[in-house]
Amino acid sequence: MAELLRDRETAPGARAFDGPAGPLARAREGLRAYGLITAMWIRSTMAYRTSFVLTALANLAATGLDFVAILLMFSQVDRLGGYGLGEIAFLYGAVSTAFGLADLTMGSMERLGRRVRDGTLDTLLVRPVPVLAQVAADRFALRRLGRVTQGLLVLAYALGSTDIDWTPLKVLMIPLMLISGTGIFASVFVLGAAFQFVAQDASEVQNSFTYGGNTLLQYPPTVFAQELVRGVTYVVPIAFVNWLPGLYVLGRPYPLDLPAWVAFTPPAVAFACLALAGLAWRAGLRSYRSTGS
Amino acid sequence: MSVRSGRFRLYAAVAGGNFRRFATYRTATLAGVFTNTVFGVILAYTYIALWDERPGLGGYDQAQALTYVWLGQALLMAMAAMGGGFETDLMERIRTGDVAVDLYRPADLQAWWLASDLGRAAFHLLGRGVVPMIFGALVFQLALPDDPLTWLATLLAVLLGVVVSFALRYLVALSAFWLLDGAGVAQVSWLAGTFFSGLLLPLHVFPGALGEAARALPWSALLQVPADVFLGRHTGTGLLAVYAFQAAWAAALLALGRLLQGLATRRVVVQGG
């Protein structure tokens, strides 16, 4: 322990982690810690097996309710915003899977505000493990697999029921879209957590961008006003999760006047968002000044 | 007389205290209002698309459908259909054994929590409901009632709805006496609340038998009934009939809660240690 603590400043809010040298080594260390903490929470979850099964099923059903609502809509109409059920299911499945994966891996960061409020974040700062990894893995909830499962099921249904003019590029686009989408939503979770260092009680604002974004992207962009579509394309670029790549796969035009190659930019957008979120996280962590009580 | 008025003062104090408890978190309230508004906007556009495709769906015109959306956002927290009410607190008290303290208080357990939940609902109606509703009315074309009596009638329907919602969640909370970890039951109940209250889609849009069943279940008292009163679908004796519907569910569920509470306190050993 003494060696581990040796070259670290003890004041909270200073450099939180200064273990292995180099960003790559630090990232590896962070991932390893994330894996260990996650495994611990999974073991703890399994202590109440019945409750786990119930909550996982409830999670699957709860997240599937949106889709049931869409199915109910389609019991009354054939098209919504010019899109058929299969096409909407495709958009829905893609965003649910991506959001579900981000929620599974990073969703615990929502709880940061509480830790800042009651000062328990201090405990995480004195451990020789990257704080981001600890916060992301804190109370890891395996039940969130329910949303991922649900999203994949709807996506499978959509791929089976929609006529898509498949090309190798479109096939490649599916995994690309899911991974980039996960990255974009993960960056929203990290950004939201960084924001909670400043506005501890305002954690619900981030729900507008996570759950709200997820709900928005379940429907085709033609449903919404142009200004809203512009906002989620240029300002908070969640349209890159499934609208831009998804409409390319479906062979539909995007309602904004953008060149065709933009459909292939989600990985770059995800990377940029994650880098930005990382910087915001560092700034937020540095501004942390414990509770003082 | 003095005992009775003392009782009333006690429960009024519990309700008032809980109102103030929720009113303390102003930033959180603002953040919540923001989120309700964002969801209102998203839902409003999907409803516009739906009613463009099928004008008059479920007996609503587009303005009424949009009013329904914003009323749903305004009542969402007050009804605690998706959670956020007292039930997690009570379940935690049952799990830790603190409920023993509640049981030897000179107050009835159910009435105590009902009073506290009414205080919470009153705050959420004002703090979380008013601003999204105003935003919705400014940005979208809503069908707001002209008659002030309709507003009052809606308020009564909302009150009855909150009592039904409480009675349902009280049953959920009591399940912790047997299960200890009531998280799964609570989630299933929030799920049913979200779906069958009409929060996702008006129950009139549900097809056939599903629609009829959904409209007969207690959850329809939470949003569908108050919304229809607000939109002027129930007047005269029809209005009395829906009040009776809400009151009957409230009475039946509260009675069931009493029964379960009696069983729980007689048969179940309180956790301790």
From TrEMBL, chain A:
InterPro entries: ABC-2_transporter-like (IPR010390). Signal peptide: none annotated. The keyword Metal-binding does not apply. It holds the Pfam family ABC2_membrane_6. The keyword Metal-binding does not apply. The chain crosses the membrane at residues 52-74, 80-102, 176-199, 258-281. Keywords: Membrane, Transmembrane, Transmembrane helix. It comes from the Bacteria. This is Transporter. It comes from Streptomyces longispororuber.
From TrEMBL, chain B:
The chain crosses the membrane at residues 28-48, 68-86, 125-144, 150-171, 178-201, 240-260. The keyword Ribosomal protein does not apply. InterPro entries: ABC-2_transporter-like (IPR010390). Keywords: Membrane, Transmembrane, Transmembrane helix. It comes from the Bacteria. Pfam families: ABC2_membrane_6. This is ABC transporter permease. It comes from Streptomyces longispororuber.
